[in-house]
Amino acid sequence: MKEKLLGKNPDELRQVAAELGLPSFTAKQLAQWLYEKRVNSFEEMTNLSKAARAALAERYEVGLTPYAGSVTSKDGTRKYLFPAFPDDEGSDKYIETVMIPEYEEAGEIDRATVCVSSQVGCKMGCRFCMTGRGGFHGQLDAAQILSQFIMIDEGPQLTNAVFMGMGEPLDNWANVRRALEVITSDWGFGWSPKRVTLSTVGVVPRLKEFLDESRCHLAVSLHNPFPQERLEMMPVQKGYPLEEVVNLLRQYDFSGQRRVSFEYIMFDGWNDTRRHSNALARLLHGLECRINLIRFHAIPDFPLKPSPAQTIETFKARLGAAGITTTLRASRGEDVMAACGLLAGKGLKKETK
Known about the structure:
Blueprint: E1 3-4, H1 10-19, H2 26-36, H3 50-59, E2 60-61, E3 69-72, E4 78-83, E5 94-103, E6 109-115, E7 119-121, H4 130-133, E8 136-139, H5 142-150, E9 160-163, H6 173-184, E10 196-200, H7 204-213, E11 217-221, H8 227-233, H9 236-239, H10 242-249, E12 260-266, H11 274-284, E13 290-295, H12 309-321, E14 325-329
Parallel strand pairs: 1-2, 6-9, 9-10, 10-11, 11-12, 12-13, 13-14
Antiparallel strand pairs: 3-4, 4-5, 5-6, 7-8
């Protein structure tokens, strides 16, 4: 199997050039072709000599993975299916990527957010998440993560990215870190870190590394402020208690350009009472943050139901009265199983480009 170039930084590309006996400036040319022009083959790298292209092709591949199918929601949200193991033609494992558009009055896309997957399945086992219920099947490498930006049809139009798809990003931190470096570096995509949000259930050791090394926004999956109740739905609570996560966050400054938010899926009778809003306010008191309330999207064989709309509005008002900025996230793509918690890596195999 050939090594992939996609995901390598300039120092690593210089090493590639040196090993092949190519001039050092080849590294800059490669970075431009990979990240600025986003080509899919060495033959497209026309300012490299034929000999250089042949040498590269013998040892390496670009590393882009095309999507296998897509489906579009009635609200314009589009879900893409990527083969999780593209070298294994017999594999039935897929990952899902979601493109969420926001439109101007004229009907043109004003904002296009890509929801990126980082793993094939997930180890975290959150009971209310279709991905978690399907188990863990492998890590995505940096090239597979970056392919979700480059290969979808709206790639050139993307304005923002959220690492909120399949998998726990901090459980694949080595590859996610590499992808974030490409996305936010001048030699890569050149995006401002303010355009990227990483979501986590709170894998504390890797969370500290992310906070120290990146300026991207952070979203923490909270869902219940009471430890024992949270443990009922989120096994990660045992290894990385929520209080430990919040205490770590208090060591960082979120009053400037980097934001931290807390994701809170609303379940009828389980986490939507006054007791819960009061506990949330106490837990987050003094921390510069916001809470995103999310309507639960019902899944098979799960006992809890979504909170009623009025209950959500009341909960939101209580948090606002406690001084916590609170928003209600709009549900997008539910009809094509693209909404929060519904990504399962299956169901599009009959769709084609």
